[in-house]
Write a structure and sequence with these properties.
Helix content is about 50%, strand content about 10%. It contains 15 helices and 11 strands. The strands form 3 sheets. It has a 6-stranded parallel β-sheet with strand order 4-5-7-9-10-11. It has a 3-stranded parallel β-sheet with strand order 1-2-3, covered by helices on one side. Helix 3 (about 80-90) crosses helix 10 (about 335-355), helix 5 packs parallel to helix 6 and helix 9 (about 300-315) packs across helix 10 (about 335-355). The chain binds 6-deoxy-beta-L-fructofuranose (LRH) and manganese (II) ion (2 copies). InterPro entries: L-rhamnose_isomerase, L_rhamnose_iso, Xyl_isomerase-like_sf, Xyl_isomerase-like_TIM-brl.
């Protein structure tokens, strides 16, 4: 029996008050969709299977370069983080896994595994961290890690990644995500080619330590913390890395890591076509790596990304199996609430993309009917799929209204009494 931290009676009661209306809304939507030749239960079945990993660092309050305003009842350690993740999963039933970050979440792997299985959770990709110096670390990453000019620093960064693989192995992860902050702040500070050569050589060592059934996910980011040049700056460089390393290496797309007007959905399509799309860090942004809640600024773009994913899924694209992870920083909201809603935003984008009339879209494309093609996408995007999402939650034992149930349960108040405020924790300024 998996444990639930929110009283199940409370969730049932909360649902009971809403179930009648939900069923009416669901039936009405089902009738509308059937007129369009869509079977609502087939969409529901796919949404029920959809899952996204919660980043362990996301359940703590984030911060900016300027300040961090801690929230009440913040997790004190990885075990509190796992408890918070379990609440998100209990109410949404869309977040069965947790993505750990080492060394922020370093603990006895056996205890980590036990803590997760207590709630029926598992671990997704494990993230290494060579973009900040850990306590008692011998050599500093101030001037880079895997691309550092000094072989000893590179060696230390490689060792750290290998340690992450070891921890990941013990807790049941099947992927390592590597994001580095390496780059430069001034023209001339580093030699672009030599830095990338050093990075590739170091990554080869990590790749060689990867178990056969694992994937290595590399994450590109245009800028920050380096403000002039970044070693893994865009999807082109990321693709080169995956190609150079081999068949277990894939690109990870963090939505916030691009310039504001970049066509991310097209990057996604290219990576799918060349079998190198490894996964996502979902979030939203207005200006840069804002780490805002998924779908909060530009839900249409999120839909367009999912449109590419659904196209690949339905056409059976070879080797297509991207990892879904959130990567958000919550400065002004309760992280649990933000993460629950973000998981639902992904399901919404997914369900809407499943509604696209692909035959009509293709024939509009063949006939160069730009207007009808784009209206075909809009028709799917405009359809309110909320009853499908709520029904998926209900049928899997979650909450029809996760934020409402969460607030009613008073979880935050309860943990605030148990968890004294901490000055800082992993995941503050990312
Ligand atoms: C870097 C990043 C990367 C890190 C996370 C904490 O900006 O997106 O994924 O691991 O933030
Ligand atoms: Mn990220
Ligand atoms: Mn980021």
């Amino acid at each position: 029996m998996t444990e639930q931290l929110i009283a199940t009676d409370l969730v049932h009661e909360h649902n009971a008050e809403r179930e009648g209306n939900l069923r009416r809304d669901y039936d009405h939507l089902g009738e509308q969709l059937s007129r369009r030749g869509i079977d609502i239960s087939a969409i529901l079945a796919r949404v029920e299977k959809f899952g996204v990993a919660i980043p362990s660092w996301g359940v703590g309050t984030g911060g900016t370069r300027f300040a961090r305003y801690p929230g009440p009842g913040e997790p004190r350690d990885v075990f509190d983080k796992i408890e918070d993740c379990s609440v998100i999963q209990q109410l949404t039933r869309a977040t069965p896994t947790v993505s750990l970050h080492i060394p922020w979440d370093k603990a006895d792997p056996k205890r980590l595994k036990q803590a997760a299985s207590r709630f029926g959770l598992a671990f997704d990709a494990i993230n290494s961290n060579t973009f900040s110096d850990a306590k008692d670390q011998k050599l500093s990453y101030k001037f880079g890690s895997l691309s550092h000019a000094d072989a000893a620093v590179r060696g230390q960064a490689v060792e750290h990644n290998i340690e992450c693989i070891e921890i990941g192995r013990e807790v049941g992860s099947k992927a390592l995500t590597v994001w580095i902050g390496d780059g430069s702040n001034f023209p001339g500070q580093v030699n672009f080619t030599r830095a990338f050569e050093r990075y590739l050589a170091a990554m080869r060592e990590i790749y060689d330590a990867l178990p056969d059934d694992w994937r290595l996910l590399t994450e590109h980011k245009m800028y920050e913390p380096a403000f002039y040049s970044t070693v893994v700056q865009d999807w082109g460089t990321n693709y080169l890395i995956a190609q150079e390393l081999g068949e277990k290496a894939f690109c990870l797309v963090d939505l916030g890591h691009h310039a504001p007007n970049v066509n991310i959905e097209m990057i996604v399509a290219r990576l799918i076509q060349f079998k190198k799309l490894g996964g996502f860090h979902f979030n939203d942004s207005k200006y840069g790596d804002d780490d805002l809640d998924a779908g909060s600024i530009d839900p249409y773009r999120l839909f367009l990304v999912f449109n590419e994913l659904v196209d690949a899924e339905l056409s059976g694209a070879a080797g297509f199996d991207p990892a879904h992870m959130l990567d958000q920083s919550h400065n002004v909201t309760d992280p649990i609430e933000s993460l629950m809603l973000s998981a639902a935003e992904l399901q919404r984008a997914y369900a809407s993309a499943l509604l696209v009339d692909r035959a009509a879209l293709e024939s509009s494309q063949e006939e160069n009917d730009a207007l009808m093609a784009t209206q075909t996408l809009k028709a799917a995007f405009r359809t309110d799929v909320e009853p499908i999402l709520a029904m998926a939650r209900l049928s899997k034992g979650g909450a029809i209204d996760p934020v409402g149930a969460y607030r009613k349960a008073g979880y935050r108040v309860k943990v605030a009494a148990e968890r004294p405020a901490v000055a800082s924790m992993g995941g503050g300024i990312v």
